[in-house]
Amino acid sequence: MPSPQTLAVIDTTRPADTQPHTLAAALATEFAATAAHYDRANLFPHDNIRRLHEAGLIGHALPMELGGGGANLADALHIVRTVARGEAATALVLALQYSISSRLGHDTPGWPRAVRLEVARDIARNGSLINALRVEPELGTPVRGGVPATVARRNGDGWRVSGAKIYSTGAPGLTWMLVLAHSAEAAPRVGYWLVHRDSPGIRIVEDWDHLGLRASASHKVVFDDVPVPGTHTLELQPAGSPPVADPHGARWGGVLIPSVYDGVARAARDWLVEFSTTRVPTNLGRPLSTLPRFQEALGEIDALLLSNDRLFAGAADGSVALKQIGQLKHLVTTQAIAVVERAVQLTGNPGLTRANPLERHYRDVLCSRVHAPQSDFALSSAGAAAFAEWTDGGQR
């Protein structure tokens, strides 16, 4: 494994498609060494993002012709899950980055080509981050419906955006913000206004003080009459209409976000193995790993992770249908939580001691429950669709 100082150097003796995975593994080790610091200090890991850019991984999901690595979903999944084993918040930022940036090489409905190229070049050259800011204090998540209070008003050829977004993952590090808003028009439209961080009128309220993923810096962002060019309006639809269909983004986001928590679970599993093989209680006289209950528990944990592996493989190769991605998220994250809970149960006080990383993994993995679609929504939607299919004559 290369040292941190050589991470940005391409090894031409290694097949090109394996190089990013090697870099990600080395960076995960590096990030693990500072993860507790960022967690306790509640700080965004700017240095981690810089290191990812130096390794060519921030833009890895961009097409090669736009300066990226041309990663497919399986490749992006591997990298995000690997980085998550080192530091979960960095991996979440990367998952969201890949979910959006992987679209920029496609003829995406509602995205002007010039805008796609502008953002892609900025990512490739500067390692710029992009994320969608959708959740609001009053509305909550828009996945369950409703019109955002954030408003865009016409201003000559452009717009002025005002409102507030909460749970804005990676806020201090974002260059591009996809701000969900409605237009102040006679017939309002809902969509995204693409805002650059250097625009006047943006204020970050550092209010993120969460149980887990503390380094994600998911602060509140306030927009006060922020100017946006007329060309930077994306996916506008009449208010109340279904959002623009985005099967690519739905699959990538639906796979990569759960992969963060699978990576956390694997880090917890590895810590448990190390602890169990090195801990020798004096009244036992041999490592905890020799006890049948520890062996059975590790077998159970590995079975859960094997299940996640198979689910991810099916999602990456398309054998898990797009309509099943919500169920995949529920299964993967539920099993990831179970892995970490089992490790905590086995290790007791050492597992919950802040000097050990397991308690951080436990706090981080619980955050998987808040990402859309939440389990109740994913399962009820899948159940309703299954009943409808049966009623329409699709019974098996």
From TrEMBL:
Gene3D superfamilies: Acyl-CoA dehydrogenase/oxidase, N-terminal domain, Butyryl-CoA Dehydrogenase, subunit A, domain 2, Butyryl-CoA Dehydrogenase, subunit A, domain 3. Its EC number is 1.-.-.-. CDD domains: ACAD. Residues 263-372 form the Acyl-CoA dehydrogenase C-terminal domain. Residues 24-101 form the Acyl-CoA dehydrogenase/oxidase N-terminal domain. Residues 136-226 form the Acyl-CoA oxidase/dehydrogenase middle domain. It is an enzyme of class 1 (oxidoreductase). Keywords: Flavoprotein, Oxidoreductase. One of its GO terms (molecular function) is oxidoreductase activity. Pfam families: Acyl-CoA_dh_2, Acyl-CoA_dh_M, Acyl-CoA_dh_N. The keyword Hydrolase does not apply. This is Acyl-CoA dehydrogenase family protein. The lineage of its organism: Bacteria, Pseudomonadati, Pseudomonadota, Betaproteobacteria, Rhodocyclales.
